[in-house]
Structures are given as structure tokens and as C-alpha cells.
């Protein structure tokens, strides 16, 4: 398979070590109708950002879910190449392949984008264009009008980045999406598999494969300050140039034209104090104290969930996320919300006015940021979250103000000696003090939002109990349907479960697109069923079901894997190893100051002992009636994330295992970090552990107790008893569902004995 259009000049082989580059060929010939591409170059898989901000390739909480879990197979896959040819190329680093480009391969969207690239920057043109997933707020889930990467590539996953050159189109994504991307990309596209061994960064790929002096275009609104700086550093060292196309606008939006969806217009709503637990003035007071400590005159919050949390509002501009396109700007004596004024309904306007928050037009942000910068104010902007466009506007305003002041001084003091200037007096000293000097630290809103208060935790607990009723109801419904001989599609699974959630009090929407993967689709980690192409669940199907709900009080995220018939021994073995990892993490106790990366191996060890693993992180942060993925904490192999797991943070616990083309297993509960009582406190440290929030039974027939310790079996029994205790009282009006819950929360020895009588193959541990 071909990597269409890699520049022929100075091709570079990237060795197993990312830092080692070995030049292997250097032809200057122009491309013909045949594409000759080194397989070694095609293995060059970048990631979009440096480790410090690599989370943007993935989700807020997960980040690079493939990190630490090298994928098998080639690091890149050209969609047009037969699998056998791809395998041969991957196995032989010296091999090259020539694949003809046909007229049928032409992608009209790519052709239009390349035409826009040629005329960009007042006709000077660009050699490559970068299209990330993010919107101007660096959202994991952008609104429909900002789904530029999805539109141009056809890839619908939530993580990835695109590079389009004059003759190449490449998508980078992580291990959650390899199978999905391979099925969604067209023949002009090459899939680059992030996290596979020996792959360079995206920036390194551009530096090595573009010609000297090449200009790389970006939309500065959808790249962070850190991302652009890293790109600039890598490309400038290689003789290339980064071109922020501010006046051109987004080039994909130009291609999209009048087919592009309109900007969202959902109204804002007030987040009730019963679930917020802290009013806006108190939150502003905390932020201003952080500003004082950091020496900042103003603080910009650009992430949508930060704005919603700070001002106790919720919106509906982004599917699955109760947020609104907006910014927050706080000074020592003012606070402003920048949003489409039509979204501010009377109740919200009253709430904001009472909280001391001024409402301003969404597009008024740049002028206010520029005014603060021009006046010499120190603006706190998180370089990992704020767009480069906002940063450039502030920097330009500072430079313009300095230039104006300098001209004014020169008009008034033409006689000032040059010597006084260079010795630090007069204009020279003034010029040095007018450079833009933002406070570049992580947003204090992020950390404050991650530590839930008592009311937020109460809301999360309530949301999970409501959710348990819906999920348990669905599991019983599925069992009954299959028992009657019915066949249920994956889409019907999604619709039924969502319908049951909708019956619960305070339900707003799903917290992400439901993942209902039957059989081999369960191995597609972030699979999305579609009518016409989805699989069905029959009387002998292993189903992975990952779903969640947004309620007025909290956010849920749960995964259960169930079998509608008799699972194989191998499936039960894999499920049990995943369960053991889940139990190990759930039972962990650790000293304060410990990051999630130190705990991640606990969930993997039972799988590692079998020679198994999974290509995603084990846990992500979760918002309180906010985004289902949030940071700064994570439980993953990304060792650069050093944020400690602190009391009152909410995380997921979701190890898994996936066999491509066969099945997938994942078990997910949400947990809250709590203080633990220990016999001792070494060095005076507090010790922490988890409290479970999710209460839905695990399917007993998938558990092989012969592989488990007595303590692990006891954990399952104790968990099921807690599920019964917490959920049963909510099912008093549903006697059939109550009986189902009782049957599925009995001790494992009883459930498995029932299974044996029914004909299931089970092995009950001798210890029982």
C-alpha cells in the first residue's frame, strides 16, 4: 500500500529510537503518476504534540491511550494497499512499493483543500496544512461546525490529527481507533498508528519530508500556544516555516462552504446550587487569590467546561457535553462571560448579574484581551489550553502599544542621546518593559474543578443510582429478548438503553456516544454502531456496552461486558483477568502525592502475566454534571502526567482486553478518591484509596473463579451486596426487575451453581 505523495526529496528512515535519524536516500526527482515510497518512511508515525501536551491527541482524561502499549503490526497503513502487501512492507524496512494513482482515487475535498492551500497567505501558498480535532476551545468533542478533521478525512473518532500536503493525506490516531480509522478512511489516505514502536513525532515527520523552505499552514484558532511553539521549534531547525493563517480563516471551512453546519444556539441554563455547592462569587474569590499569588492582573479561561464550572451555568452546544461556546475573563475587580447573547435567557442573565458577571458578545474577547495586554497588564493564559490566535492578539497589542509610545516619546524628545538608551535609560528601558509577558501556568480553574465539593459528590452519587436503575433495566430487557429468540441490533441496544435513561429524573442527554460492540465490534475500542452496517446480538453473543448519562446532578460512565449464551473458556479467562485488574486498582491504597501512572500497572499485571495488554489508559477524570473526560488527573502509562490523585477527585477504573476480529472485554466503574484509615502514617503522610460510585452487577457466567484468589471472589460478593443494598430501594415499584437484581447480586458460588444446572460451563473455586 502506498503513502500517496510523500515528497521524494531527502527521505529519512526513522530508527527504533525516536531520537536517531538515518538518511537513506535523497532523490530530487519530481513525482510522476507512479508513487514510489519507502516503507521505512511510511512507518514514520508522529504524534501531534510534545509529551507535556500529548493528551490532545486523545481525550482530556485519557490522552494518548496507546502510550506504553506498543501496537502490533505496521506503524502506518495505507488504505489502498492489500493487507498482504502491507505486511511485506512492514517486515522489510528496505522495501519500497510502487502503486499507480488512478482517477478514481481523487478525493474532491482534498483537491479543493489543496487549491485553497495554493492560494493561501495572499497567494504565497503553503506546502502542508495541519488539521487537528480541536476547536478554538481545545474541546475533545467540538460542535458540528468545528469538526474540520472529521469533515476532511471522514474519520469520526474523537482523537486524531491530519496533515495534507500537495500530494499526501495522512491521519494520526491512537490505538483506540486503528480499526475504526482503517474502515472509514478513503483510498487517498494513509493511517498512521500513534504509539507504535519507532515512530517520530508529527513535527519530525514534517521536518524530514518537506523540502527546504517549505511553509506549513495552520489555523491559529485551533492550535494551542504550546503546540505551535513546538511545531515552530522543530520546523525552523529543519529550515521550514510555520505560517499561522489568521486572515485566511480555516481552509477546511472554505472547502466545506455553505454545507457547513451553523454555529450552535442552545440556551444556557443555571446549574442549581444544590449540585454546584459553591456560588460564583466564592469561586471568583478563589481564582483571584491564585492570580495574586501568580502576579497576574487577569485570568483567561478558554475551555468550555472551565467556563461552565466557574459561572455555574450549563449549555447544550456540544453533543454529550453540557457546555456552551464561551470564554471567561477575570480581573481583580471584574468578571466577564463572552457568549452569543441570544443564549442568555432571563433566568441566566439574572443569575450572572447577581454574581457580578458581565455578559459580552462572544467575538468581543480579542478586543478586551488586547486592551489588557496593551496597558501592560499581566494576563494568565494556560499555554496548553489557550489558542495561538488569542496569544498572538495579545502580543500584537503589546507591540503596537509599545511602538505608539515610542513614536510619542521620540516626537517629544528628539534630543535624547543614543548612549542613554543603550545604557538602560530613556526609550531603551521603556522598550524592554513593554514586551508581552503573560503568566504561563496551568489554569487554576482546572485544578479547582477536579476537586469535587460535598454537594458535587452528592450529585454524582445520586446520578449513579438513577443510572443503575436504567442500566439494570436494560440488562434484564436484553436477557428477556434473547430468551424469547429475538435478535437485537447494536443500534437497538443504544436506543433502548438511552430510552431507559430518559425515564430517569433529571436526565439531560448521554455523556458520550454509546459504544455497543457485538462480537468482533467489541474489539473496536471506541466503536459506534450505525444503521445498515451494525451487527446484531443473538443467543450467543459477547457484547461490550460502554455508555453514560448526563443528569442535572452528575455525570455517569459505565462499561459492562455480557454474554447472551455460553461464553468460551478463553472469553471467560480474558474477562476474569480484566476483572482481577479492576479489583486490584479498586482495592489500592497509596500515599498522598502519588500520580495515576504509579497505579496503572496494578490493573495490567493480571493481563501481563498472560502476555496480554490493552491500548488505552486505565482511568480518566470525570466532571460533575460536566464533561465525561476531564483532567488534570489520569490513570495511565503516560508518565509525564505527574498530577497526584487527590481526595475528592472522580476517576474511572476501566481495564480491558481486545482481540481484533473476535471480541472485546472492558469493565468500568467510576470511583472517587477518599482518605483511608491506616494503622500507621509513615512520615506523617495521608493515605488514599477509592470509593465506588457505580452500582450495576457483573455477569457471573463470565467469571472463572478457579483463576481467582479467595480475596478476589470476596470482593465480587461484597460489591454485589453493595449493589443490592443501594439500588433495591429504587425498584420497589418494579418487582420483576427487583427479582432480577436479587438473582444477579447473590454470592458467586450460588450464581455459578445455578449456571451449572442450566448447562453453562463453570468452574467454582475449590476454596468455596
From TrEMBL:
Residues 401-432 are annotated as: Disordered. InterPro entries: Creatin/AminoP/Spt16_N, Creatinase/aminopeptidase-like, Creatinase_N, Pept_M24, Pept_M24B, Peptidase_M24_C, X-Pro_aminopeptidase_P. Residues 686-748 form the Peptidase M24 C-terminal domain. One of its GO terms (cellular component) is cytoplasm. Keywords: Hydrolase, Manganese, Metal-binding. The keyword Hydrolase applies. GO terms for molecular function: metal ion binding; metalloaminopeptidase activity. Belongs to the peptidase M24B family. Pfam families: Creatinase_N (PF01321), Creatinase_N_2 (PF16189), Peptidase_M24 (PF00557), Peptidase_M24_C (PF16188). It comes from Volvox africanus. Residues 110-240 form the Creatinase N-terminal domain. Its cofactor is Mn(2+). The keyword Cell cycle does not apply. CDD domains: APP (cd01085). This is Creatinase/aminopeptidase. It comes from the Eukaryota. Residues 459-675 form the Peptidase M24 domain.
Amino acid at each position: 500500500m502506498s503513502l500517496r505523495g510523500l515528497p521524494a526529496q531527502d527521505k529519512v528512515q526513522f530508527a527504533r529510537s525516536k531520537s536517531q535519524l538515518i538518511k537513506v536516500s535523497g532523490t530530487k526527482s519530481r513525482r510522476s503518476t507512479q508513487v514510489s515510497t519507502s516503507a521505512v518512511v511510511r512507518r514514520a508515525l508522529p504524534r501531534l504534540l510534545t509529551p507535556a501536551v500529548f493528551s490532545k491527541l486523545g481525550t482530556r482524561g485519557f490522552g494518548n491511550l496507546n502510550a506504553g502499549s506498543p501496537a502490533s503490526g505496521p506503524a502506518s497503513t495505507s488504505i489502498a494497499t492489500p493487507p498482504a502487501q502491507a505486511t511485506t512492507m512492514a517486515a522489510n524496512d528496505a522495501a519500497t512499493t510502487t502503486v499507480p494513482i488512478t482517477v478514481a482515487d481523487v478525493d474532491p475535498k482534498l483537491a479543493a483543500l489543496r487549491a485553497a492551500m495554493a492560494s493561501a497567505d495572499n497567494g504565497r501558498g503553503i506546502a502542508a496544512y495541519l488539521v487537528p480535532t480541536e476547536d478554538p476551545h481545545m474541546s475533545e468533542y467540538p460542535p458540528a461546525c468545528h469538526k474540520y478533521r472529521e469533515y476532511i478525512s471522514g474519520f469520526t473518532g474523537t482523537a486524531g490529527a491530519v496533515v495534507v500536503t500537495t500530494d499526501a493525506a495522512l491521519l494520526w490516531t491512537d490505538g483506540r481507533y486503528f480499526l475504526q480509522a482503517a474502515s472509514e478512511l478513503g483510498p487517498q489516505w494513509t493511517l498512521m498508528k500513534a504509539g507504535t514502536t519507532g515512530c517520530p513525532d508529527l513535527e519530525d515527520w514534517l521536518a524530514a519530508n518537506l523540502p527546504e523552505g517549505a511553509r506549513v499552514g495552520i489555523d491559529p484558532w485551533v492550535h494551542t500556544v504550546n503546540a505551535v511553539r513546538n511545531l515552530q521549534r522543530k520546523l525552523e531547525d529543519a529550515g521550514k516555516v510555520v505560517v499561522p493563517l489568521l486572515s485566511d480563516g480555516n481552509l477546511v471551512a472554505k472547502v466545506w462552504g455553505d454545507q457547513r453546519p451553523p454555529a450552535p444556539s442552545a440556551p444556557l441554563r443555571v446549574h442549581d446550587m444544590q449540585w454546584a455547592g459553591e456560588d460564583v462569587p466564592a469561586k471568583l474569590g478563589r481564582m483571584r487569590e491564585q492570580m495574586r499569588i501568580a502576579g497576574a492582573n487577569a485570568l483567561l479561561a478558554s475551555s468550555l467546561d472551565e467556563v461552565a464550572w466557574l459561572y455555574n451555568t450549563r449549555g447544550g452546544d456540544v453533543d454529550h457535553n453540557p457546555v456552551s461556546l464561551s470564554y471567561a475573563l477575570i480581573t481583580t475587580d471584574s468578571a466577564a462571560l463572552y457568549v452569543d447573547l441570544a443564549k442568555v435567557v432571563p433566568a441566566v442573565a439574572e443569575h450572572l448579574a447577581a454574581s457580578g458577571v458581565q455578559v459580552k458578545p462572544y467575538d468581543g474577547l480579542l478586543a478586551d484581551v488586547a486592551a489588557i495586554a496593551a496597558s501592560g497588564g499581566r494576563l494568565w493564559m494556560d499555554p496548553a489550553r489557550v489558542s495561538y490566535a488569542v496569544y498572538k492578539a495579545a502580543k500584537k497589542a503589546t507591540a503596537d502599544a509599545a511602538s505608539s509610545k515610542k513614536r510619542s516619546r521620540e516626537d517629544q524628545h528628539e534630543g535624547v542621546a543614543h548612549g542613554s538608551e543603550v545604557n538602560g535609560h530613556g526609550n531603551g528601558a521603556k522598550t524592554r518593559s513593554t514586551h508581552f509577558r503573560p503568566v504561563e501556568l496551568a489554569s487554576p480553574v482546572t485544578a479547582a474543578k477536579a476537586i469535587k465539593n460535598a454537594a458535587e459528590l452528592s450529585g454524582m452519587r445520586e446520578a449513579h443510582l438513577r443510572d443503575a436503575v436504567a442500566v439494570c433495566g436494560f440488562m434484564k430487557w436484553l436477557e428477556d429478548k434473547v430468551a424469547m429468540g429475538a435478535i437485537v441490533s447494536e443500534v437497538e441496544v443504544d436506543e433502548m438503553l438511552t430510552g431507559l435513561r430518559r425515564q430517569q429524573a433529571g436526565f439531560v442527554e448521554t455523556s458520550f456516544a454509546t459504544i455497543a460492540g457485538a462480537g468482533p465490534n467489541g474489539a473496536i475500542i471506541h466503536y459506534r454502531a450505525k444503521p445498515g452496517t451494525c451487527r446484531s446480538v443473538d443467543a450467543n453473543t459477547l457484547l461490550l456496552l460502554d455508555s453514560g448519562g448526563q443528569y442535572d446532578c452528575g455525570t455517569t460512565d459505565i462499561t459492562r461486558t455480557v454474554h447472551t449464551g455460553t461464553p468460551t473458556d478463553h472469553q471467560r479467562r480474558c474477562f476474569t483477568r480484566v476483572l482481577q485488574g479492576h479489583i486490584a486498582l479498586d482495592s489500592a491504597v497509596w500515599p498522598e502525592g502519588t500520580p495515576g501512572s504509579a497505579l496503572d500497572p496494578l490493573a495490567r499485571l493480571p493481563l501481563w502475566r498472560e502476555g496480554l495488554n490493552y491500548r488505552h489508559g486505565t482511568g480518566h477524570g470525570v466532571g460533575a454534571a460536566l464533561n465525561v473526560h476531564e483532567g488534570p488527573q489520569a490513570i495511565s502509562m503516560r508518565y509525564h502526567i505527574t498530577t497526584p490523585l487527590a481526595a475528592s477527585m472522580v476517576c474511572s477504573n476501566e481495564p480491558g482486553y481486545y482481540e481484533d476480529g473476535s471480541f472485546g472485554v472492558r469493565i468500568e466503574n467510576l470511583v472517587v478518591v477518599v482518605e483511608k484509615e491506616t494503622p500507621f502514617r509513615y512520615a506523617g503522610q495521608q493515605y488514599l484509596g477509592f470509593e465506588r460510585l457505580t452500582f450495576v452487577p457483573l455477569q457471573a457466567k463470565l467469571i472463572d473463579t478457579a483463576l481467582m484468589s479467595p480475596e478476589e471472589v470476596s470482593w465480587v460478593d461484597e460489591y454485589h451486596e453493595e449493589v443490592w443494598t443501594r439500588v433495591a430501594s429504587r425498584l420497589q415499584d418494579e418487582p420483576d426487575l427487583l427479582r432480577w437484581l436479587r438473582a444477579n447480586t447473590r454470592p458467586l458460588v450460588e450464581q455459578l451453581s445455578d449456571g451449572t444446572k442450566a448447562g453453562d460451563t463453570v468452574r467454582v473455586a475449590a476454596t468455596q
